[in-house]
Amino acid sequence: MTEAPITAVLFDMDGLIFDTERSYRQAWHYAAKEQGFELDDALYLSMIGMPRTQSEPKLARALGPGLDLPRYRQQRDAHFRQLQRQGIPFQAGFEPLFQRLTACQIPTALVTSSRMVDVEENFAQRPYLSQFATTVTCEQVQRGKPDPEPYQLACQRLRLAPAQCLVVEDSNNGIRSGLAAGCRTAMVPDLQAPDSDVQAQVHHLLDSLEQLLPTLADQFEPGRLG
């Protein structure tokens, strides 16, 4: 059976569009050290792609009852904001890819585990946020990635079947979410290498966003990319 052509592209944000994951990692480690903890990097990497409603309880269980979570949250977020104000760059290939999709009138969605305030801060002074057909943030779903709900909601808003939508992610949890929603998937790893289950199931594994259109151009509707 022939697969339906790709009709829309659904983007994660942190680590895929923006080079934010290194700043997040620095902020998470900083806040842990402020309370005398050493945050295991493997623990941090396992939480990439999760909303804070899932990652913070996981952190608290790992570090134990001595962690003051509200204080940790405040210090982590303040440190990240300080880094964010210095400017967080786009990942290589995002701007020409997004501009091409927009010029060809291919719908796009932003599907992120971050809050809307973080989305708006990252895209401040940049023209792209309003060009997404829809944006799904952690406040808009009950269950975040790796649950399929975020990508299911994006597909519903676009009025497209999941099989018509390409999910582009940098994290294992994000790819699991897209797969569970029934979408096509492409992983562009950033800090996190693909786990064995993800590597076995992901449709495309790319080195950068610059490879996406050259690799997948024939899977879009004929003539759609010009």
Examine the coordinates and then state which fold CATH places here, giving the name of the CATH topology of the largest domain: Rossmann fold
The second-level CATH architecture of the largest domain is: 3-Layer(aba) Sandwich
**At the first level of CATH, what is the class of the largest domain?**
Alpha Beta
- Estimate the strand proportion: 5-15%
Q: How helical, in percent, are the residues?
A: 40-55%
How many domains would you count in the coordinates?
2
Organism: Ferrimonas marina
Protein name: Haloacid dehalogenase superfamily, subfamily IA, variant 3 with third motif having DD or ED
Primary descriptors:
single chain; 226 residues; alpha/beta; 10 helices; HAD-like_sf; HAD-SF_hydro_IA; Haloacid dehalogenase superfamily, subfamily IA, variant 3 with third motif having DD or ED; PGP-like_dom2
